[in-house]
Amino acid sequence: PAGTVPRRRPPRSDMGRGLTLLLLALLAAPAQAEGGTAAEEVKIEVLHLPETCSPKSKKGDLLNAHYDGFLASDGSKFYCSRTQNEGHPKWFVLGVGQVIKGLDIAMMNMCPGEKRKVIIPPSLAYGQQGYAQGKIPPNATLIFEIELYAVNKGPRSVEAFNQIDKDSDKKLSQLEISEYLKEEFARDGKKRHPSVHDEILADIFKKNDHDGDGFISAKEYNVYQHDEL
Protein backbone atom coordinates (compact mmCIF):
# COMPACT_ATOMS: atom_id res chain seq x y z
CA PRO A 1 0.00 0.00 0.00
CA ALA A 2 0.97 3.63 -0.34
CA GLY A 3 2.88 4.82 2.72
CA THR A 4 2.75 7.91 4.78
CA VAL A 5 6.41 8.20 3.89
CA PRO A 6 7.62 8.91 0.36
CA ARG A 7 8.90 5.67 -1.14
CA ARG A 8 12.17 7.11 -2.33
CA ARG A 9 14.05 9.82 -0.48
CA PRO A 10 15.90 12.55 -2.42
CA PRO A 11 19.26 13.73 -1.08
CA ARG A 12 19.09 15.51 2.25
CA SER A 13 21.39 18.36 1.35
CA ASP A 14 19.47 20.07 -1.45
CA MET A 15 16.24 20.05 -3.37
CA GLY A 16 16.68 16.55 -4.72
CA ARG A 17 18.23 17.30 -8.09
CA GLY A 18 18.57 15.38 -11.30
CA LEU A 19 18.69 11.65 -10.89
CA THR A 20 16.51 11.48 -7.81
CA LEU A 21 13.85 13.65 -9.41
CA LEU A 22 13.92 11.51 -12.51
CA LEU A 23 13.61 8.34 -10.50
CA LEU A 24 10.81 9.74 -8.37
CA ALA A 25 8.92 10.66 -11.50
CA LEU A 26 9.63 7.75 -13.78
CA LEU A 27 10.01 4.81 -11.39
CA ALA A 28 7.31 5.48 -8.81
CA ALA A 29 4.02 3.80 -9.63
CA PRO A 30 1.05 5.90 -8.43
CA ALA A 31 -0.88 4.21 -5.64
CA GLN A 32 -4.63 3.92 -5.52
CA ALA A 33 -6.76 4.77 -2.51
CA GLU A 34 -8.71 1.98 -0.88
CA GLY A 35 -12.36 2.00 -1.99
CA GLY A 36 -14.52 4.45 -0.09
CA THR A 37 -17.54 6.64 -0.73
CA ALA A 38 -17.77 10.01 -2.38
CA ALA A 39 -19.19 11.46 0.84
CA GLU A 40 -15.93 11.04 2.70
CA GLU A 41 -13.45 13.86 2.45
CA VAL A 42 -10.35 15.28 4.05
CA LYS A 43 -11.02 17.87 6.73
CA ILE A 44 -8.42 20.64 6.80
CA GLU A 45 -7.71 23.12 9.59
CA VAL A 46 -5.10 25.82 8.88
CA LEU A 47 -3.05 26.34 12.05
CA HIS A 48 -0.68 28.96 10.64
CA LEU A 49 -0.71 30.93 7.39
CA PRO A 50 2.29 33.13 6.47
CA GLU A 51 1.63 36.75 5.48
CA THR A 52 3.15 36.00 2.10
CA CYS A 53 1.58 32.76 0.94
CA SER A 54 3.34 31.96 -2.33
CA PRO A 55 3.86 29.76 -4.23
CA LYS A 56 0.93 27.47 -3.53
CA SER A 57 1.44 23.76 -4.03
CA LYS A 58 -0.15 21.94 -6.97
CA LYS A 59 -0.04 18.50 -8.50
CA GLY A 60 3.46 17.60 -9.66
CA ASP A 61 5.30 19.97 -7.32
CA LEU A 62 8.19 18.70 -5.22
CA LEU A 63 7.41 19.39 -1.56
CA ASN A 64 9.55 19.39 1.57
CA ALA A 65 7.64 18.92 4.82
CA HIS A 66 7.56 17.55 8.32
CA TYR A 67 4.48 15.76 9.56
CA ASP A 68 3.25 13.75 12.51
CA GLY A 69 0.56 11.10 12.20
CA PHE A 70 -1.97 10.14 14.90
CA LEU A 71 -4.80 7.64 15.20
CA ALA A 72 -8.07 9.52 15.63
CA SER A 73 -9.46 6.71 17.79
CA ASP A 74 -7.10 7.21 20.73
CA GLY A 75 -4.72 10.01 19.73
CA SER A 76 -1.68 7.74 19.69
CA LYS A 77 1.17 8.79 17.41
CA PHE A 78 2.10 6.23 14.74
CA TYR A 79 4.55 8.34 12.75
CA CYS A 80 6.88 11.31 13.28
CA SER A 81 9.08 12.51 10.41
CA ARG A 82 11.38 14.30 12.85
CA THR A 83 12.54 10.99 14.28
CA GLN A 84 13.22 9.48 10.84
CA ASN A 85 16.16 10.04 8.47
CA GLU A 86 18.11 11.94 11.15
CA GLY A 87 15.26 14.40 11.48
CA HIS A 88 15.38 15.72 7.93
CA PRO A 89 12.07 16.88 6.41
CA LYS A 90 10.55 14.59 3.80
CA TRP A 91 10.70 15.23 0.06
CA PHE A 92 7.96 13.91 -2.21
CA VAL A 93 6.08 14.76 -5.37
CA LEU A 94 2.51 15.90 -4.70
CA GLY A 95 -0.46 14.19 -6.30
CA VAL A 96 1.21 11.10 -7.77
CA GLY A 97 0.62 8.52 -5.06
CA GLN A 98 3.94 8.71 -3.21
CA VAL A 99 1.94 9.30 -0.05
CA ILE A 100 -1.59 8.18 0.83
CA LYS A 101 -4.41 9.78 -1.15
CA GLY A 102 -5.58 11.81 1.83
CA LEU A 103 -2.21 13.54 2.18
CA ASP A 104 -2.09 14.26 -1.55
CA ILE A 105 -5.44 16.03 -1.13
CA ALA A 106 -4.59 17.67 2.21
CA MET A 107 -1.42 19.35 0.92
CA MET A 108 -2.83 20.95 -2.22
CA ASN A 109 -2.79 24.78 -2.36
CA MET A 110 -0.43 24.96 0.60
CA CYS A 111 2.42 27.48 0.82
CA PRO A 112 5.88 27.39 2.43
CA GLY A 113 5.62 28.08 6.15
CA GLU A 114 2.00 27.01 6.36
CA LYS A 115 0.89 24.56 9.06
CA ARG A 116 -2.19 22.39 8.83
CA LYS A 117 -4.04 19.82 10.90
CA VAL A 118 -5.94 17.37 8.71
CA ILE A 119 -8.33 14.48 9.34
CA ILE A 120 -8.25 11.70 6.76
CA PRO A 121 -11.00 9.04 6.54
CA PRO A 122 -10.06 5.36 6.07
CA SER A 123 -11.08 5.36 2.39
CA LEU A 124 -8.38 7.96 1.68
CA ALA A 125 -5.80 6.27 3.91
CA TYR A 126 -5.39 2.51 4.43
CA GLY A 127 -9.00 1.42 4.18
CA GLN A 128 -10.28 -1.91 5.42
CA GLN A 129 -6.86 -3.54 5.29
CA GLY A 130 -5.04 -1.11 7.53
CA TYR A 131 -1.23 -1.07 7.52
CA ALA A 132 0.24 -3.44 10.09
CA GLN A 133 3.82 -2.38 9.45
CA GLY A 134 2.87 1.20 10.30
CA LYS A 135 0.78 0.10 13.30
CA ILE A 136 -2.40 1.35 11.63
CA PRO A 137 -5.47 -0.85 12.25
CA PRO A 138 -8.23 -1.52 9.70
CA ASN A 139 -10.77 1.27 9.07
CA ALA A 140 -8.62 3.84 10.86
CA THR A 141 -9.26 7.57 10.60
CA LEU A 142 -5.94 9.40 10.67
CA ILE A 143 -4.90 12.85 11.86
CA PHE A 144 -1.79 14.60 10.53
CA GLU A 145 -0.11 17.78 11.69
CA ILE A 146 1.85 19.14 8.74
CA GLU A 147 4.44 21.90 8.38
CA LEU A 148 5.44 22.71 4.80
CA TYR A 149 8.92 24.12 4.17
CA ALA A 150 9.38 24.29 0.41
CA VAL A 151 7.42 24.12 -2.85
CA ASN A 152 9.51 23.45 -5.94
CA LYS A 153 8.82 22.57 -9.54
CA GLY A 154 8.68 18.81 -9.67
CA PRO A 155 10.30 16.25 -11.96
CA ARG A 156 7.37 16.22 -14.39
CA SER A 157 7.83 19.89 -15.19
CA VAL A 158 8.59 21.24 -18.65
CA GLU A 159 12.03 22.26 -17.38
CA ALA A 160 12.88 18.71 -16.33
CA PHE A 161 11.68 17.28 -19.65
CA ASN A 162 13.70 19.80 -21.66
CA GLN A 163 16.80 19.13 -19.57
CA ILE A 164 16.78 15.50 -20.68
CA ASP A 165 15.59 16.19 -24.25
CA LYS A 166 18.97 17.24 -25.65
CA ASP A 167 17.90 17.33 -29.32
CA SER A 168 14.63 19.15 -28.55
CA ASP A 169 12.50 16.71 -30.57
CA LYS A 170 9.86 16.59 -27.83
CA LYS A 171 10.51 12.97 -26.97
CA LEU A 172 13.04 11.21 -24.77
CA SER A 173 15.16 8.50 -26.38
CA GLN A 174 16.90 5.68 -24.56
CA LEU A 175 20.21 7.33 -25.39
CA GLU A 176 19.12 10.67 -23.90
CA ILE A 177 17.93 9.08 -20.66
CA SER A 178 21.00 6.83 -20.57
CA GLU A 179 23.30 9.85 -20.84
CA TYR A 180 21.26 11.67 -18.21
CA LEU A 181 21.62 8.74 -15.82
CA LYS A 182 25.37 8.60 -16.44
CA GLU A 183 25.70 12.33 -15.70
CA GLU A 184 23.77 12.00 -12.46
CA PHE A 185 25.64 8.87 -11.37
CA ALA A 186 28.91 10.74 -11.94
CA ARG A 187 27.62 13.77 -10.05
CA ASP A 188 26.63 11.96 -6.87
CA GLY A 189 29.91 10.00 -6.89
CA LYS A 190 28.53 6.74 -5.53
CA LYS A 191 30.01 3.49 -6.80
CA ARG A 192 27.48 1.29 -8.56
CA HIS A 193 27.69 -1.91 -10.53
CA PRO A 194 27.27 -1.22 -14.28
CA SER A 195 24.14 -3.38 -14.30
CA VAL A 196 22.35 -0.84 -12.10
CA HIS A 197 22.32 1.68 -14.95
CA ASP A 198 20.82 -0.84 -17.37
CA GLU A 199 18.23 -2.01 -14.86
CA ILE A 200 17.06 1.54 -14.11
CA LEU A 201 16.92 2.44 -17.80
CA ALA A 202 14.88 -0.68 -18.60
CA ASP A 203 12.50 -0.01 -15.72
CA ILE A 204 11.96 3.59 -16.80
CA PHE A 205 10.92 2.53 -20.29
CA LYS A 206 8.82 -0.37 -19.00
CA LYS A 207 6.80 2.04 -16.84
CA ASN A 208 6.60 4.99 -19.25
CA ASP A 209 6.92 3.90 -22.90
CA HIS A 210 3.27 2.91 -23.17
CA ASP A 211 3.16 2.55 -26.96
CA GLY A 212 6.45 0.62 -27.08
CA ASP A 213 8.07 2.81 -29.74
CA GLY A 214 11.34 3.18 -27.84
CA PHE A 215 10.70 6.80 -26.87
CA ILE A 216 8.97 8.56 -23.97
CA SER A 217 6.77 11.25 -25.47
CA ALA A 218 5.66 14.40 -23.69
CA LYS A 219 2.26 12.79 -23.21
CA GLU A 220 3.80 9.61 -21.77
CA TYR A 221 6.07 11.72 -19.57
CA ASN A 222 2.83 13.29 -18.36
CA VAL A 223 3.82 16.89 -17.81
CA TYR A 224 1.55 18.25 -15.11
CA GLN A 225 -0.74 21.27 -15.39
CA HIS A 226 -1.18 22.61 -18.92
CA ASP A 227 2.36 23.66 -19.66
CA GLU A 228 3.25 23.67 -23.34
CA LEU A 229 6.34 21.83 -24.50
From TrEMBL:
Task: Say if the entry is tagged with keyword Endoplasmic reticulum.
Answer: yes
Cite the Pfam families for this sequence. EF-hand_7, FKBP_C
**Reactions catalysed according to its record:** [protein]-peptidylproline (omega=180) = [protein]-peptidylproline (omega=0)
Task: Please report the stretch or stretches of sequence annotated as the EF-hand domain.
Answer: 196-229
The family database entries (Gene3D superfamilies) matched by this protein are listed as: 3.10.50.40, EF-hand (1.10.238.10)
Instruction: Provide the GO MF annotations for this entry.
Output: calcium ion binding; peptidyl-prolyl cis-trans isomerase activity
Known EC number: 5.2.1.8
Q: What class of enzyme is it?
A: isomerase
Q: Where is the signal peptide?
A: 1-33
Supply the name of the protein. peptidylprolyl isomerase
Species this chain originates from: Halcyon senegalensis
Q: Per UniProt, what is the name of the gene that codes for the protein in this document? A: Fkbp7
